[in-house]
Amino acid sequence: MKKKTNDILIVGFALFSMFFGAGNLLFPPYLGMVSGKNWFISFLGFIIADAGLSLLVIVVAAKNKGILDEILIRGGKKLARFIGCASILCIGPFLAIPRTAATTFEMSVLPFAPNSNTLVSVIFSIIFFGITYALTIRATKVIDIIGKILTPILIISLLALIVKGIITPIGPISSTSMIDRSLFSEGISQGYLTMDALGSAAMASIMISTIVSKGYNDPKEQISMTIKAGLVSGLALAVVYGGLTYLGATLSTMHDLNTSQALLVVAATEGIFGAPGKILLAIMVLFACLTTSIGLTSSAAKYFSDISNGRLSYEKIVTAICIFSAIVSNFGVSTIIKFSIPVLQTIYPVMIILVVLTIFTKKIKNDNTFKGAAYFVFVFSILSVLNSLTGVFKFVTLVPLASLGFGWIIPGIVGAILGSFIKTRKI
User: Fold this and answer.
1) pTM, to two decimals
2) For the CA atoms of 9, 13, 19, 24, what is the dihedral angle to 10 degrees?
3) CA dihedral for 92, 96, 99, 104, sign (positive or negative)
4) DSSP states of 127-159 as a string?
5) Residue 408, in any domain of the structure
6) SS3 annotation, 42-53
7) Residues 2/154, Cβ–Cβ less than 8 Å
8) Residue 288 in contact with residue 22, Cβ under 8 Å?
């Protein structure tokens, strides 16, 4: 029993580290700053969209052997493969993995060497992804490396910052918020940007592989341990997010909307620890981003190796991801985040609606229920993104719950109902 509990904790804390990367460190303090005394409202939206959805996906993925396509398949083979690949590419070499290196460079290197040029950035990205490659190439060792070695350093650094910031606040909390839109919706939007829910299914696969390698061969026991490890991770994330959001709120009278997310975190650590805060921040960012890079690289490589039935080896995909991510990371954090917003706002809702329906998969006999919901949400998400970019589809803002970031729920329900009337055989 002691060994089992220890293994759950190791896997759970490793999962926490894989989730807690660039966006997880950047977004909560900024939410707290723009929210002022109402920081808990935005935090609530953030924790639901990040840890809440991630846990939901892990539970569903664990019951489907950690196979992402098994969750999506009843929405249609083509859409399932498209959403699956798009999700993994987002948490992989296109967005999330390069962002880890870019954030580490901007927050762990530039504060000490502000005049660094492009060559320095390129050299850093090569070193960063060289380490990622070395620690990722053996898939079953990823969890142990992160859970036993890297996570403790990250958690101790984060707790030191949060506890000190609570005991000696940097400044008074503003009585008003800086934005005129819903703080809860803003939290939801920022939670999307972490991309954690997209990676949860793929990470569940790595978790299950690790649990199997530790000698747990009973499928029910594997599912139980995976879910419990997910709960450990979710609780740790909630505590850290709450602390970081509060720290951001204590900066709300000292900064404005023009303050970048990275600079705000720098200001928080320096305000709490003074000059040594830069060193602590460098440590936090390095380990937060490195553990996430390792976890996402391993998850993405395993997914593409699995769907290719082994024709593309895990090792070759890891190599390709590291090389490609090293190139993309040199575009910088702001550019990567700006590009990621419309992509995530399109993919996330489809993933969520299919995950939710999969919970009731035994009760829903008609595959067209899934397909109707998935395609209606997909179309609505595209229109919402186009409206945010051009303003030509303003009717999407009139849909109930749109102001909270959940406008896709009604189209999903309508699509599910209409689809249920179309008879088809189960896949």
Assistant:
1) 0.75
2) 130
3) negative
4) HHHHHHHHHHSSGGGHHHIIIIIIHHHHHHHHH
5) no
6) HHHHHHHHHHHH
7) no
8) yes
In a domain, 368, yes or no: no
**Boundaries of domain holding 17:** 2-340
Instruction: Tell me, yes or no, whether 363 lies in a domain.
Output: no
Interval 196-213: pLDDT, tens: 777 777 677 777 777 887
User: Residue 405 domain-assigned?
Assistant: no
User: How many folded domains does the chain comprise?
Assistant: 1
Q: How far is residue 67's CA from residue 171's CA, in Å, rounded to a whole number?
A: 47
Q: DSSP readout, 327-384?
A: HHGGG-HHHHHHHHHHHHHHHHHHHHHHHHHHHTTTT---HHHHHHHHHHHHHHHHHH
- CATH number, domain at 65? 1.20.1740.10
64: pLDDT strictly greater than 70:
yes
Does residue 425 have a pLDDT over 80? Answer: no
Where do the DSSP E strands lie in 15-116? Answer: none
The amino acid at residue 233 is S
pLDDT tens, 110-132?
Answer: 878 877 778 898 999 999 999 99
Q: What is the pLDDT of residues 238-268, one digit of tens each?
A: 999 999 999 999 999 988 888 878 788 888 8
